Amino acid sequence: xxxxxxxxxxxxLRKTYNAxxxxxxxxxxxxxxxxxxxxxxxxEQIWQEIEKLEKExx
Length: 58
Prior knowledge:
mainly alpha, elongated
């Protein structure tokens, strides 16, 4: 009945994931491949957390 009060733990992670991807894209466009790689790796770790939470949810 009050499901809109329940927080979706993946919502915040997805927002962080998208922000990391955008930062990585900007670093790549500037030619900073080292930062691009680091940020992309962080984004992949966040994505793995999202998948883990969704698997537990299902």
